[in-house]
UniProtKB/TrEMBL annotation:
Domain of life: Bacteria
Protein name: Glutamine--fructose-6-phosphate aminotransferase [isomerizing]
Transmembrane segments: none
Catalyzed reactions: D-fructose 6-phosphate + L-glutamine = D-glucosamine 6-phosphate + L-glutamate
Gene: glmS
Enzyme class: transferase
Domain SIS: 43-182, 214-354
Keyword terms: Aminotransferase, Glutamine amidotransferase, Repeat, Transferase
EC number: 2.6.1.16
Signal peptide annotation: none
Length: 364
């Protein structure tokens, strides 16, 4: 039962400070600035032998897989990317022995992800799982893995499981990094960042009331853009996914850098843009793009950090706390969950069971 909450989705959003602690518990090593992931069943030599990482998942799990790939490339300096598991087996993929395949799934039952795992294993590859449901089909099919400990997730739109997927990738990236060239100082910096995260998630959730009006405004639009760059792009993709799933509005994610190569033609007062603009090496370029949108009277909602100066534009600012730059994407994601939620709530939709969608798709 959703209990005092009007929906499971809201209950699950608000649980995140607690569930985030659960995935980290017992896995962080402050002394050596690393993570311990016994369930992976890989020793330091196995971890060092990994030359490439390929992440496979569907829907939100695919988008968080893109965030995970960025974490692994940044912290471990191993080439990594994510692919929609639903496409993977149909292109007769080359499976390499020194690639680590990672299947990501809340339910552990998504057929497309399961068949991708089987494709990897049939061809002799090693596949580990980032799975929430213990003993599920994908967990059983994998060589080992990281359980997400988010507890049961009922709402179709994934929130707390997705956050724990991100944290699972951070732990994996840390462990892969620390058997390579990631310094102990950087390792300790990230361990401390991970320990700070649950309280910072709580801080973002405390700002919920300020997002309700913004969400109502966005709910009026028939079509919206979600934009971000590099670390912010999968955040924008996930934000657009949540928004379309439960508000039934057309929401399209774009790299901010690609705006001038097409979508700018659609910007006008009727088409709002939700922009992800963290304080990082791309802030100035991101802000420049916001000015392009503003010049065309495109309404703007900017998910950003306090230190970011947007200049003279008419934008709604949504400020989140900063962590370490590598871990910031998950804090930038939380307000997008709340925006989608309150837009759908305002429109009177069945939030936990959006039309045409199922929590896990177990038939092809
Ligand atoms: C889709 C759901 O069908 O499956 C998404 O609508 C979900 O919300 C995706 O992200 C993947 O599910 P799972 O259980 O494999 O993480």
């Amino acid at each position: 039962e959703a209990g005092e909450h009007e929906s499971f989705m809201r209950k699950e959003i608000l649980e995140q400070p607690t569930t985030a602690q659960a995935v980290l518990r017992g896995r962080l090593d402050e002394r050596f600035g690393t993570a311990h992931l016994g369930g992976l069943d890989m020793d330091a030599r196995d971890l060092r032998a990994v030359r490439r990482v390929k992440i496979l998942g569907c829907g939100s799990a695919y988008y968080v897989g893109q965030m995970g790939a960025a974490l692994i490339e940044e912290l471990a300096r191993i080439p990594a990317d994510a692919e929609a598991a639903s496409e993977f087996r149909y292109r007769d993929p080359v499976i390499e022995p020194d690639t680590l395949y990672v299947a990501v799934s809340q339910s552990g039952e998504t057929i497309d992800t399961l068949l991708a795992v089987q494709e990897v294993r049939r061809k002799g590859g090693r596949c580990v799982g980032l799975v929430n449901v213990v003993g599920s089909a994908i967990a059983r099919e994998c060589d080992g893995g990281i359980y997400l400990h988010a507890g049961p997730e009922v709402a179709v739109a994934s929130t707390k499981a997705l956050t724990n997927m991100f944290l699972g990738f951070a732990l994996l990236a840390l462990q892969l990094g620390r058997v390579r060239d990631l310094s102990i100082a950087d390792g300790k910096r990230l361990v401390a960042g991970l320990e700070r995260l649950p309280a910072q998630i709580e801080e973002v959730l405390a700002g919920e009331a300020d997002l309700v009006e913004v969400a109502k405004e966005l709910a009026q639009a028939r079509s919206l853009f979600f934009i971000g760059r590099v670390r912010g792009f999968p955040v924008a993709r996930e934000g657009a996914q949540k928004f379309k799933e439960i508000s039934y509005r057309h929401a399209e994610a774009y790299q901010t850098s690609e705006l001038k190569h097409g979508p700018l033609a659609l910007i006008d007062p009727e088409v709002p843009t939700v922009a992800v603009v963290p304080l990082d090496e791309l802030t100035d370029r991101n802000v420049g793009a916001l000015h392009e949108i503003d010049a065309r009277q495109g309404p703007l909602v900017v998910i950003t950090h306090d230190e970011v100066d947007l200049g003279e534009i008419g934008a709604r600012r949504v400020v989140v706390p900063r962590n370490e730059p590598e871990l910031d994407p998950i804090l930038l994601t939380i307000p997008l969950q709340l925006l989608a939620y309150h837009a759908a709530q305002h429109l009177g939709h069945d939030i936990d069971k959006p039309r045409n969608l199922a929590k896990s798709v177990t038939v092809e």
